[in-house]
């Protein structure tokens, strides 16, 4: 168990974006593209000093860089315009981070929204987005979610026979008929980040199994309440290869041809999301531009060989759209040295604001915002403050000399952090700010003790 420290000559500066221009892809770097170090040796994002933000808004604090987020939106959107000769639509998988301000920024870039619950539909509507830009997903949508979405004119991604049955019986309550639907198919392509497999069937709770598809085509084609506009497949997340999505394009085209034999006019094909980002320097995803080029070319090629017109091409990135735009700032608290085993450095957040390490053993990197150029000198474990031994944010983080009160920044926390946050230990969820041009604005207020009691009821007889 003895740990021999290695020589660590680097500093936090190694994570700064390599060039000031935004030609590189945000998903290939750990810090937002506006990250700099100022004259106080402090980390700056969007022209704001991270330590000042913590003084103003408290910690933990999610810091969202608007320029990085807009850049990823534009790289996707403009990439499809450049490489795909047909129509295209980029759709944000809002489960990555759904709140009114995030939806509003992304909507202003012209993107659509993949929503997976009534709550996400509601949030996105509140951001001023209309239902015709939303696509409702989910393997077990409730009847009320289906009704809410369909009444608001969202496109419904049909995931099961129950979705079809529910919608048929809800149809008389929906003003605008037919209901726009797409069918989610399980393409038999599975990705495990670094390799993928292709099979006829796939053990997945999502979508229709290949042997069901023809029956679904037949059923849907006979229902006047449906306008089946497209097919959809999504195969996984944090994918670094291009081949799986190129294969999806081909599979979707083949199914579109089969659908036409049932009289269905498939105009849209959605290849899902899944492009990976850098959480550590070892991660090596393609750039957004490279990915868009690869899938666009694959779609064109598949359509040419099937001799069909180009469909409207849809893609649904979540993580790669927002993951690299945000960091989480924590304040360093207690230090515990377990001789010859490990040193724990605790911060004022943890698994309630970032459940990914404890849930998926996800690995993150960190910098100390007020000591950016200090040499890295120890390898220690960053622990959260929750009553759970597994509440470790980073095992073996390389840090400079630190003191209580220093500001620790965990990078690439934009996706699946706030959206998966909880109130475990009755800890309020952190505030979030969006930063741009040296200005910071609150987008999520820090939860107060009152907020924590908002749902609590005390029955009369217990008083
Ligand atoms: C989660 C999800 C996405 C987004 O995945 P990322 O890996 O975050 O890009 C897209 N589509 C569907 C249906 C999803 O479930």
**Secondary-structure content class:** alpha/beta
Oligomeric category: single chain
Largest sheet: 9 strands, mixed
Number of helices: 12
How far do the termini sit from each other?
A: 53 Å
CATH level-3 fold name of the largest domain: TIM Barrel
Molecular shape: globular
Q: Determine the CATH superfamily of the largest domain.
A: Alanine racemase
- Heterogens: pyridoxal-5'-phosphate
Mean pLDDT: 95
What helical percentage do the residues reach? 25-40%
Radius of gyration: 24 Å
How much β-strand is present in the residues? 15-25%
CATH class type of the largest domain: Alpha Beta
Total number of distinct structural domains: 2
> What is the number of strand segments?
22
Q: At CATH's second level, what is the architecture of the largest domain?
A: Alpha-Beta Barrel
Low-confidence region ranges? none
Topology (SSEs and partners):
Layout: E1 36-37, E2 43-45, E3 48-49, H1 50-57, E4 61-65, H2 66-83, E5 88-93, H3 100-108, E6 112-115, H4 118-126, E7 134-136, H5 143-151, E8 155-158, H6 161-170, E9 179-184, E10 189-192, E11 195-198, H7 213-222, E12 226-232, H8 243-260, E13 268-270, H9 288-306, E14 312-315, H10 319-322, E15 326-338, E16 342-347, H11 356-360, E17 366-368, E18 378-383, E19 392-399, E20 407-411, E21 431-436, E22 439-444, H12 449-452
The structure holds pyridoxal-5'-phosphate.
Residues 93, 95-96, 114, 137, 234, 237, 272-274, 316-320, 415 line the site of pyridoxal-5'-phosphate.
């Amino acid at each position: 168990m003895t740990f021999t420290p290695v020589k660590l000559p680097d500093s936090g500066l190694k994570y700064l974006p390599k060039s000031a221009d935004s030609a590189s892809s945000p998903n290939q770097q750990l810090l937002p593209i506006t990250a700099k170090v100022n004259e106080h040796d402090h980390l700056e994002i969007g022209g704001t000093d991270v330590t000042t933000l913590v003084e103003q808004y408290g910690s933990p604090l999610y810091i969202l860089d608007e320029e990085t987020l807009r850049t990823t939106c534009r790289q996707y959107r403009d990439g499809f315009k450049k490489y795909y000769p047909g129509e295209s639509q980029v759709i944000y998988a809002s489960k990555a981070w759904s709140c009114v301000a995030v939806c509003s920024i992304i909507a202003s870039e012209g993107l659509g929204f993949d929503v997976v619950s009534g709550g996400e539909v509601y949030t996105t509507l509140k951001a001023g987005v209309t239902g015709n830009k939303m696509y409702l997903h989910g393997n077990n949508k409730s009847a009320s979610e289906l009704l809410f979405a369909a009444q608001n004119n969202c496109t419904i991604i049909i995931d099961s026979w129950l979705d079809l049955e529910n919608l048929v019986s809800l149809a008389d309550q929906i003003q605008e008929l037919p209901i726009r639907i797409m069918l989610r198919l399980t393409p038999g392509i599975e990705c495990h980040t670094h390799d993928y497999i292709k099979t006829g069937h796939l053990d997945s709770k999502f979508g229709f199994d290949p042997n069901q598809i023809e029956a679904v085509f037949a059923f849907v084609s006979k229902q006047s309440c449906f306008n089946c506009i497209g097919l959809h497949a999504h195969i996984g997340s944090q994918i670094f290869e291009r081949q799986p999505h190129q294969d999806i394009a081909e599979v979707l085209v083949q199914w579109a041809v089969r659908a036409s034999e049932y009289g269905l006019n498939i105009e849209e094909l959605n290849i899902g999301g899944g492009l990976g980002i850098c959480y550590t320097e070892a991660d090596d995803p393609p750039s957004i531009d490279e990915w868009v080029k690869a899938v666009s070319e694959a779609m064109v090629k598949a359509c040419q060989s099937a001799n069909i017109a180009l469909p409207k091409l849809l893609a649904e990135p979540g993580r790669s759209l927002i993951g690299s735009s945000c960091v989480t700032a924590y304040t360093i608290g207690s230090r515990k040295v377990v001789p010859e085993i490990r040193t724990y450095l605790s911060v004022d957040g943890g698994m309630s604001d970032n459940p990914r390490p404890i849930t998926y053993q996800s690995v993150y990197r960190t910098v100390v915002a007020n000591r950016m150029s200090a040499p890295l000198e120890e390898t220690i474990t960053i622990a959260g403050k929750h009553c759970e031994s597994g509440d470790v944010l980073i095992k073996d983080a390389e840090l400079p000399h630190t003191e209580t009160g220093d500001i620790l920044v965990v990078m690439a926390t934009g996706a699946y952090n706030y959206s998966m946050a909880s109130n475990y230990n009755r800890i309020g969820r952190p505030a979030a700010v969006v930063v741009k041009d040296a200005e910071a604005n609150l987008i999520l207020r820090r939860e107060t003790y009152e907020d924590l009691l908002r749902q609590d009821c005390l029955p009369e007889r217990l008083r």
